[in-house]
Write a structure and sequence with these properties.
Layout (H helix, E strand, L loop, with lengths): L15 E6 L8 E6 L7 E11 L1 H7 L16 E8 L11 E4 L2 E3 L5 H4 L10 E2 L11 E5 L4 E2 L9 H4 L5 H10 L6 E5 L3 H13 L2 E6 L4 H9 L4 E4 L8 E6 L5 H8 L1 E9 L12 H4 L4 E4 L5 H14 L5 E5 L3 H10 L5 E5 L2
Parallel strand pairs: 10-11, 10-13, 11-12, 13-14, 14-15, 16-17
Antiparallel strand pairs: 1-2, 3-4, 3-8, 3-17, 4-5, 5-9, 6-7
Helix pairs in contact: 4-5, 4-9
Length: about 350
């Protein structure tokens, strides 16, 4: 990874770009002029149109994720246009719209990769964490982990597509782990939950939304998307749940969800970072209840979900900020003051 110049006064040229850079955790991102990255073998150069702002970005900035590569350009919900193909890249065309997710590179040789579980690759690297991401005008990405988005006549604009690349994908993978469960609790009704809610409504399943206590706007938002019930996480649902998807990074929600779970049900922890889960009595788990985590995504997940999102016309509610206001976007996400997803409009 190149070490960047701090010269913010250097004029932009055809070989430079603007990007928001994290140099030290715990500090604000800095706008910098950087060399425009060139596509190497197996890579695609992308002009970024929009990039989602994910809670994982907050964990990165706050130093809660181990061993980030610094300095780093964050952002892993990228929508953009192909500008150039590196040697050996096939299946993509210049000016084609593509999406880039969190999982950015894998070895392709380990037992996990060879069995279609590349999300568990021990050598995996991640976009906006160990690989420069989408808080920039341009980026490069491994072609194996880019998804063709296309330009269908009824396609959503880039800022509405960006959240699909993480919030949507992780929500979809979490949902797959609960099988045909019919009564599903969604803990933390933000970017991922409001996308999963639309999938559940399309499938005719019931969902119950748990927000921060007192978040009346969030509860109304959930009800508007078809929730059977919406209250703070301090309230019990009106019925036992078959499954619970936890998107908030609060380990205490796991024990709360277990208390509302029917026998044989599953609690899925869908975040990359979560506070410690408190001790709980074995009887809360007994009855073949299950707690499991979701790690990243597979390419198959991405292809399946993006096809589904297009087919059922998932709509994402977004609060958009320009690139230079990335710190404000992160603050908005931290405060929970927006409904749905927060996105940077880059183009």
């Amino acid at each position: 990874m190149c070490r960047y110049s701090r010269n913010r006064n250097e004029p932009l040229t055809s070989k430079t770009m603007r990007a928001m850079v994290l140099r030290r955790t715990g500090e604000a991102l800095q706008m910098e002029r950087l060399p425009r990255p060139e596509a190497e073998a197996g890579q695609i150069q992308i002009r970024v149109e929009a990039c989602g702002v994910c809670r994982t970005d907050l964990h990165l900035v706050d130093g809660e994720l181990p061993d980030p590569v610094l300095p780093i350009v964050p952002g892993h919900e990228i929508i953009g246009r192909v500008m150039a193909l590196g040697p050996g890249v096939t299946g993509f065309a210049v000016d084609q719209r593509v999406g880039v997710p969190w999982l950015g590179w894998t070895c392709g040789k380990c037992a996990f990769c060879l069995s279609g579980r590349e999300n568990l690759c021990e050598s995996a690297r991640f976009t906006g964490y160990q690989i420069n991401g989408g808080y920039a005008q341009y980026t490069v990405a491994d072609a194996r982990y880019c998804f063709v988005i296309g330009d269908a006549p009824n396609q959503s604009p880039p800022i509405e597509l960006a959240p699909l690349l993480c919030a949507g994908l992780i929500g979809y993978r979490a949902l797959r782990f609960v099988g045909d469960a019919q009564r599903i609790g969604l803990y933390g009704f933000g970017a991922a939950a409001h996308i999963v809610a639309q999938v559940l409504s399309h499938q005719g399943r019931s969902f119950y939304a748990f927000t921060r206590p007192g978040d009346l706007e969030g509860q109304q938002f959930a009800l508007s998307l078809g929730a059977s019930w919406a209250q703070g996480s301090d309230k019990p649902p009106p019925t036992m749940l078959d499954a619970a998807l936890i998107f908030a990074p609060d380990g205490t929600l796991v024990t709360l969800a277990l208390g509302h779970l029917e026998k044989g049900g599953c609690v899925v922890c869908a975040g990359i970072h979560m506070s410690d889960i408190p001790a709980f009595p074995y009887r809360s788990l007994w009855g073949e209840r299950v707690i499991r985590s979701v790690a990243n995504l597979t390419r198959r997940n991405g292809i399946e979900f993006l096809e589904l999102a297009q087919r059922i016309r998932i709509h994402t509610a977004v609060t958009a900020y320009p690139l230079e206001r990335a710190n404000d976007a992160l603050a908005c996400l931290r405060s929970g003051s927006s409904q749905g997803a927060v996105v940077l409009s880059v183009s």
